Amino acid sequence: MFPLNAWYVAATDNEIGRKLFSRRICNKPIVLYRKENGEAAALADACWHRLLPLSKGELHGDNVICAYHGLEFDDTGRCVYMPSQDTINPSACVTSYPVVEKHRFIWVWPGDPALADPALVPDLHWHDDPEWVSDGRVIHAKCDYRLVVDNLMDLTHETFVHGSSIGNRAVAEAPFSVTHTDTTATVTRIMEDITAPPFWAENLGQAEHVDRWQVINFEAPSTIAIDVGVAPTGTGVPEGDLSKGVRGMVLNTITPETDKTCHYFWGFARSFRTEEQSLTQRIVEGVSGIFREDEEILEAQQKAIDDNPDHVFYNLNIDGGSMWARKLIDRMVARERDTADIAAE
Amino acid sequence: MKQADHWVDARVVSTEDIAEDVRRVCFAPEAELPGFDPGSHLRIEVPLGGGTTLRSYTCVPSPEGTLGVAVKRRVNSRGGSAYIWSLSEGDRVRVTLPENRFALSWRAPQYLLLAGGIGITPILGMARALTARGADVALHYGAERPGAMAYRAELEALLGPRARFYSDADGERPDLHALIAELHPEAELYMCGPLPMLEAAKSAWAAAGRPISRLRYEVFGDSGAHAERPFEVEVAGLERTVTVAEDETLLSALLEAGVEMIYDCQRGECGLCSVDVLEASGTLDHRDVFFSESEKQAGDKMCACVSRLVGGKARIDIGYRA
To answer: Residue B228: pLDDT above 60?
Structure first.
């Protein structure tokens, strides 16, 4: 279950170029490409005529030519050529989806195009902020995208799933607070005067007597930016001063592919040692390893959900963040259903 | 893309005359209504000559949970208009849930809306939606007489000076060339109305050098240059003569006479039902948008679903070979 009136990442900026690229988003097959001026375009990936995926065709300027009978569609989805007739059928049109390129991602809006306001693109600005350096990957996860959201909204699991890297007892034991707005939910956990896990100890240059923070920022329906880092105890972390520490942002945005699969785009941005490409590479490899552990859990969880159709989740105190995230998602979906259609009196 | 029809039973909940010869009929379907956007239409099953046929009508504003259509009374109705006008509260009908083949792009910096007569029905929803979103939009709406302009008051209130109205009876016509000339280069034109108006707008659009993909229109295939008159066709190969009454189409007359035909859109778009005209004693009244102007002038083909002969007789070839 996902809202359609939302911006979802369809691809990273480097995935889309002057060739046709197919990806399913919210159960809709979509073909993506760049026009001659570099702007991205997104059309339904099925010809109006016989439904052949347009991605099997070819680009001709800004237009897509179907590989089957040569029907040609412009970047707004309008048919501009039809074989063996002098006119063009006025109904001949494939859906074209609103597209925005922002924060090194190509975002599409699968719902009502009239509502596609570019100002609503979720904030992942750390990906193109000159003060930060980032890199990431995309994972095709065989689970409901909300399981990834749940996973990221509660980092207690780090202690158990990622015990060998970033997790330790302090994460599972530290108290946390959950706040929310109409479109966001935030889980804040500050671990005071602890021993830093190895990655953070190395970058701070200090292992003992550190304050570690994890602030999980959820933006409905599926973007989660997690502010993480450590600073020496007594430098003001509980009061919000992070300036004496080392800070990273775990940038996640999840795009439903089908009801039970998703495209999980993650990245890690940091504001320290930003000149070191080797560190960037090491972090991507490290986080990839960590997320493989998550992927295994999430796919097994999806399978268990399918195997237990009469059972539902039991929620614990630690699930407050994910409960809020799901409530905000549910609200978006409900609002979409209720939206009095424009034709109503 | 074309959707599969989703048929539901429905009940007539209201009928109301909203302009001269224009009646709005609202149906309560026995199914949950999905949201639908401007330009959407429904299909309705129309009893005709012992069987049924289908007609498409734009979904117009109606009370929540209902579907509304606004239909003009036609003297020579193809069956649909007469049927809708015969309905009264409580009657049961079969309709499809809304489908949209005339959707707004929401991309254009400026929109020009053109409506002729009952062609206002999809344009109204567009005007509402575009206005609600603060789009740059203007409407030009013509009809036979001021009294025949359904939704005029609403459109005046909605658009103020951006809506202009033209009465045929008073000799008023929009200056299409001037309207198109002052548009933004990426503006889009959305149009619904009788064929002559459509052809005029298409040629003005092309003359201005604008891309055809930014002109969107919907046709119903029920208007031509001439009034409907009965005519006869002789089908080559079958050596049969079929009479087409003024209130039926060539296609329906052929089908009723047992002549096998292929067809799809039934509104002059797809060209599947086109037949060769071998000779004709009457004028051809082309009402389709499938053939180009020069093909129409050549006069050797016609779309059986909408085009007619203005009286007289024609010998046609439907491709049957004994």
So the answer is: yes
Please tell me whether residue A65 adopts helix, strand or coil conformation.
strand
Nearest-Cα residue of chain B relative to residue A94 = B1
Cα→Cα distances B229→A220, B71, B245, B248, Å = 61, 22, 7, 10
Contacts of B42 in chain A (CB under 8 A): none
- Strands lying side by side in the sheet with A99-102: A8-12, A105-108, A99-102
Q: How far is A264 from chain B (nearest CA, A)?
A: 29
Residue B162's CATH number? 3.40.50.80
Give the CATH number for residue B278: 3.10.20.30
| Count of structural domains within chain B | 3
Tokens of A225: 């930016």
The structure's pTM equals 0.89
* B52 or B70, greater pLDDT: B70
Find the closest chain B residue to A115 by CA distance.
B133
Give per-residue pLDDT as tens, A251-294.
999 999 999 999 999 999 999 999 999 999 999 999 999 899 99
Q: How many Å lie between the alpha carbon of B290 and the closest alpha carbon of chain A?
A: 6
Write out the residues of chain A at the interface with chain B, using a CB-CB cutoff of 8 A: 44, 46, 48, 51, 74, 76-80, 85-91, 93-96, 98, 112-114, 116, 337, 339-345
Tell me what the pLDDT averaged over chain B comes to: 93
Q: Which residues constitute the domain of residue A116?
A: 8-120
Cβ <8 Å between A114 and B102 = no
Q: Are residue A231 and residue A322 in the same domain, yes or no?
A: yes
| Beta-carbon separation of A91 and B294 below 8 A | no
Q: How confident is the model at residue A341 (pLDDT cuts 50, 70, 90)?
A: very low
Asked if B59 and A91 come within 8 Å (Cβ–Cβ), the reply is no
Whether the CB-CB separation of A43 and A110 falls below 8 Å is answered with no
Which residues in chain A touch residue B33, judged by CB atoms under 8 angstroms apart?
Answer: 341
Could you say which of A95, A120, A145 is where a domain stops? A120
% of chain B with per-residue pLDDT over 90: 80
Please confirm whether the linkage preceding A221 is cis (ω < 30° from 0).
yes
Tell me the pLDDT tens digit for each residue of A91-126.
899 999 999 999 999 999 999 999 999 999 999 999
pLDDT for A194:
94
Q: How far apart are CA A188 and CA A160, in angstroms?
A: 19
Question: Which secondary structure element, helix H or strand E, spans residue A267, and what is its range?
Answer: strand A261-270
Of B61, B62, B292, the CB nearest to A86: B292
The token pair that represents B67 in the structure block: 């579907």
* Cα–chain center distance at B212: 19
Q: What is the pLDDT of residue A339?
A: 63
**Chain A residues lying within 8 Å of B292, measured CB to CB:** 86-87
Min Cα–Cα distance to chain A from B170, Å? 31
Percent of residues, chain A, with pLDDT higher than 90: 83
Beta strands B313-317 and B231-235 are: parallel
pLDDT-above-70 percentage for chain A: 97
B129·A91 Cβ contact <8 A: no
